[in-house]
Protein backbone atom coordinates (compact mmCIF):
# COMPACT_ATOMS: atom_id res chain seq x y z
CA UNK A 1 0.00 0.00 0.00
CA UNK A 2 1.40 3.35 -1.05
CA UNK A 3 1.56 6.16 1.51
CA UNK A 4 -0.37 9.31 0.58
CA UNK A 5 1.35 12.59 1.43
CA UNK A 6 -1.36 15.04 2.46
CA UNK A 7 0.94 18.05 2.07
CA UNK A 8 1.59 17.22 -1.60
CA UNK A 9 -2.16 17.11 -2.22
CA UNK A 10 -2.74 20.44 -0.41
CA UNK A 11 0.19 22.04 -2.25
CA UNK A 12 -1.13 20.90 -5.65
CA UNK A 13 -4.58 22.27 -4.80
CA UNK A 14 -3.09 25.64 -3.73
CA UNK A 15 -4.46 25.47 -0.17
CA UNK A 16 -1.19 26.03 1.71
CA UNK A 17 -0.52 29.54 2.98
CA UNK A 18 2.70 31.39 3.66
CA UNK A 19 3.82 31.47 7.32
CA UNK A 20 6.71 33.77 8.23
CA UNK A 21 8.74 32.76 11.27
CA UNK A 22 11.13 35.38 12.60
CA UNK A 23 14.06 33.90 14.51
CA UNK A 24 15.69 36.18 17.04
CA UNK A 25 18.12 36.50 19.88
CA UNK A 26 17.50 38.07 23.26
CA UNK A 27 20.39 40.03 24.74
CA UNK A 28 20.71 41.15 28.33
CA UNK A 29 21.73 44.75 29.07
CA UNK A 30 24.75 45.46 31.23
CA UNK A 31 22.61 46.48 34.20
CA UNK A 32 20.58 43.20 33.99
CA UNK A 33 17.34 45.13 34.38
CA UNK A 34 16.36 45.19 30.74
CA UNK A 35 16.76 43.07 27.68
CA UNK A 36 16.31 43.55 23.97
CA UNK A 37 15.47 41.18 21.17
CA UNK A 38 17.23 41.25 17.83
CA UNK A 39 15.08 39.94 14.97
CA UNK A 40 16.60 38.21 11.96
CA UNK A 41 15.21 37.80 8.46
CA UNK A 42 12.05 35.67 8.36
CA UNK A 43 12.04 32.04 7.30
CA UNK A 44 9.01 31.25 5.17
CA UNK A 45 7.26 27.90 5.35
CA UNK A 46 3.95 26.67 3.97
CA UNK A 47 1.09 25.29 6.05
CA UNK A 48 -2.65 24.88 6.21
CA UNK A 49 -4.14 27.82 8.16
CA UNK A 50 -7.71 28.02 9.41
CA UNK A 51 -9.56 30.31 11.80
CA UNK A 52 -10.87 28.81 15.04
CA UNK A 53 -13.99 29.93 16.86
CA UNK A 54 -13.92 30.57 20.60
CA UNK A 55 -16.45 27.81 21.31
CA UNK A 56 -14.43 25.15 19.49
CA UNK A 57 -11.30 26.14 21.42
CA UNK A 58 -13.02 25.42 24.71
CA UNK A 59 -14.19 21.99 23.61
CA UNK A 60 -11.24 20.71 21.56
CA UNK A 61 -8.20 22.10 23.37
CA UNK A 62 -7.12 22.60 26.94
CA UNK A 63 -7.29 26.09 28.35
CA UNK A 64 -8.90 29.20 26.99
CA UNK A 65 -7.05 30.81 24.09
CA UNK A 66 -7.72 34.31 22.85
CA UNK A 67 -10.27 35.28 20.23
CA UNK A 68 -8.62 35.50 16.81
CA UNK A 69 -6.76 32.23 17.18
CA UNK A 70 -5.70 30.20 14.17
CA UNK A 71 -4.98 26.54 13.66
CA UNK A 72 -1.83 25.83 11.65
CA UNK A 73 -1.03 22.36 10.31
CA UNK A 74 2.60 21.94 9.26
CA UNK A 75 5.07 19.17 8.55
CA UNK A 76 6.90 17.66 11.51
CA UNK A 77 10.29 18.92 10.32
CA UNK A 78 9.28 22.52 11.18
CA UNK A 79 8.52 21.86 14.86
CA UNK A 80 11.81 23.19 16.25
CA UNK A 81 11.59 26.26 14.02
CA UNK A 82 8.09 27.11 15.30
CA UNK A 83 9.17 26.61 18.92
CA UNK A 84 12.28 28.76 18.51
CA UNK A 85 10.63 31.62 16.61
CA UNK A 86 10.37 35.09 18.18
CA UNK A 87 7.56 36.28 15.90
CA UNK A 88 5.09 34.45 13.68
CA UNK A 89 3.29 36.32 10.91
CA UNK A 90 0.35 34.87 9.00
CA UNK A 91 -1.41 37.05 6.44
CA UNK A 92 -1.06 40.50 8.07
CA UNK A 93 -1.34 39.43 11.72
CA UNK A 94 1.26 38.55 14.32
CA UNK A 95 0.67 35.63 16.67
CA UNK A 96 2.03 34.63 20.07
CA UNK A 97 5.15 32.51 20.18
CA UNK A 98 6.24 29.89 22.67
CA UNK A 99 8.77 32.16 24.41
CA UNK A 100 6.25 35.02 24.83
CA UNK A 101 3.17 33.33 26.12
CA UNK A 102 2.73 29.61 26.55
CA UNK A 103 -0.98 30.19 27.32
CA UNK A 104 -1.71 31.47 23.79
CA UNK A 105 0.52 28.93 22.07
CA UNK A 106 -0.06 25.20 22.08
CA UNK A 107 0.55 22.28 19.78
CA UNK A 108 -0.43 18.66 19.29
CA UNK A 109 1.90 16.22 17.61
CA UNK A 110 0.23 13.73 15.28
CA UNK A 111 1.72 10.84 13.33
CA UNK A 112 2.57 12.72 10.12
CA UNK A 113 2.11 16.37 11.02
CA UNK A 114 1.85 18.89 13.88
CA UNK A 115 -1.15 21.09 14.71
CA UNK A 116 -0.26 24.46 16.25
CA UNK A 117 -2.87 26.71 17.87
CA UNK A 118 -1.71 30.33 17.89
CA UNK A 119 -3.40 33.18 19.76
CA UNK A 120 -3.46 36.65 18.24
CA UNK A 121 -0.69 38.78 19.71
CA UNK A 122 -1.70 41.97 21.51
CA UNK A 123 0.21 44.79 19.86
Keywords:
alpha+beta, 9 strands, 123 residues, Thrombin, subunit H, seven-stranded antiparallel sheet, 17% helix
Q: How many beta-strand runs?
A: 9
Order of helices and strands: HEEEEHEHEEEE
> Spatial order of the strands in the main sheet?
7-6-1-4-5-9-8
Return residue spans where pLDDT drops below 50 for at least 5 consecutive residues: none
Classify the fold: give the CATH topology: Thrombin, subunit H
Tell me what the structure shows:
This protein has 123 residues and is an alpha+beta fold. The protein has one domain (6-118): Thrombin, subunit H (Beta Barrel). The chain contains three helices and nine strands. It has helices at residues 6-13, 54-60, 79-84, and strands at residues 17-22, 24-28, 35-39, 43-51, 70-75, 87-90, 93-95, 105-109, 113-118. The strands form two sheets. The chain has a seven-stranded antiparallel β-sheet with strand order 7-6-1-4-5-9-8. Strands 2-3 form a two-stranded antiparallel sheet. The longest helix is centred in the first third of the chain and has 8 residues, at 6-13. The protein is elongated. The protein starts with 5 loop residues before the first helix and ends in a 5-residue tail after the last strand. 18% of the residues are buried. The mean pLDDT is 80.
What is shown here, in short?
The protein has about 120 residues and is of the alpha+beta class.
Amino acid sequence: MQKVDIFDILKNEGLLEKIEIYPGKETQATNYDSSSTTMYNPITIKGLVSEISQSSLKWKYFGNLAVGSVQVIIEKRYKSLMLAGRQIKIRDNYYSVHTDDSKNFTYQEKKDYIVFILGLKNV
